[in-house]
Design brief:
With about 325 residues, this protein is an alpha+beta fold. The chain has ten helices and nine strands. A five-stranded antiparallel sheet has the order 1-2-3-5-4, with helices on one face. Helix 4 packs across helix 8 (about 250-260), helix 6 packs antiparallel against helix 9 (about 265-290) and helix 9 (about 265-290) packs antiparallel against helix 10. The mean pLDDT is about 95.
Length: about 325
């Protein structure tokens, strides 16, 4: 979230101290992401951590998959740190806390990757796709049952009456509704393919990669892992829509060098890219139309809505 929650920092610091037995010296709100709130946590030892504050507890797959990958030797995965009780979600004041190692990094969404990092990106994704899911964790499985088209259609009666959305909807609403229909047609075609399923991150774009001080990549935001066709993740390195520094043919070649032999199914790629576009736009429309959100959050959603509509439709 762009704006801090209505939860005082002392309550957060006390909860962190209780759960992870850390002597907190400072909390710095980080205005990033679209779901939940994030902080840098500084401690008396000089160590820093990354804190997520969520309205709902994370499901078991989101918690256990990154830890399982680390256990399998994929150490470039940023996994949650267990509290002193062993729990990975910790409740506080109607919210849930998750704590992670803190990695100081520039925003790769803005800057893009170096050529060696494009190769590493491919290797890292290939390792994730070859990994086994945690054996005792119920994993979501791709069913191609998207709700994004209906979420977008629900905004058709709302957007024209919202001042910040009226002109955009008048200009692009028909096209967006067509894309919603197209998404459903692609979902049906994709379900008929019967592709092999692999462990997928589902949001492994450049904004969810962090480069540490040595330049090595780390994956973050394992909020919705799933067993799905590999194209679920591969839509990101082969699309220009998911970075301010989109890949060129050389970058795609380097990614393939790292990933290994790779055949992309065009129907699956089209489905995942179109479905993600419609889902993002529906969420941004809803945020702009929501009278309960703050001005900064609304402005941020409007910015990303305009980017998504302008560059991806």
């Amino acid at each position: 979230m762009i704006e801090p929650p209505k939860l005082d920092e002392k309550t957060l610091a006390d909860a962190i101290a209780d759960a992870w037995v850390l002597d907190v010296t400072g909390l710095t709100f980080l205005p990033v992401g679209l779901e939940g709130w994030t902080y840098r946590v500084d401690t008396v030892t000089g160590d820093s951590y990354f804190l997520k504050l969520r309205k709902e507890a994370s499901d078991a797959a989101a918690l256990e998959v990154p830890r399982a990958l680390v256990k399998q030797g994929i150490d470039r995965v940023v996994a949650p740190i267990a509290a002193d009780t062993g729990e990975l979600n910790f409740p506080v004041a109607g919210h849930w806390l998750l704590l992670y190692p803190y990695i100081a990094s520039s925003n790769l969404w803005d800057t893009g990757l170096t050529e060696p990092q494009w190769i590493e990106y491919g290797r890292l994704m290939a390792a994730i796709h070859a990994a086994a899911p945690p054996p005792d964790t119920a994993m979501p499985v791709e069913k191609f049952a998207t709700t994004a088209p209906d979420s977008l259609r629900a905004m058709a009666d709302v957007a024209p009456s919202v001042p910040d959305l009226a002109d955009l909807w008048a200009a692009r609403g028909t096209r967006l509704l067509h894309l919603a229909d197209e998404t459903e047609h692609l979902a049906a075609a994709a379900a008929d393919i019967g592709a092999d399923l692999v462990l997928c991150h589902t949001d492994i774009h450049l904004g969810n990669l962090l480069a540490d001080r040595t330049g090595r990549l780390n994956t973050i935001d394992w909020d919705a892992p799933i067993l799905a066709p590999k194209e679920r993740d591969l839509m990101f390195p082969f699309s220009s829509a998911f970075s301010d520094a989109p890949p060129d043919p050389r970058h795609k070649h380097l990614f393939r060098t790292g990933y290994g032999p790779l055949d992309l199914d065009p129907t699956l790629m089209a489905y995942y890219q179109t479905e993600r576009t419609i889902d993002d736009i529906a969420q941004f429309l809803a945020a702009v139309a929501d009278p309960a959100v703050g001005a900064a959050t609304r402005a941020n959603a409007l910015h990303w809505l305009q980017v998504a509509v302008g560059e991806r439709t």
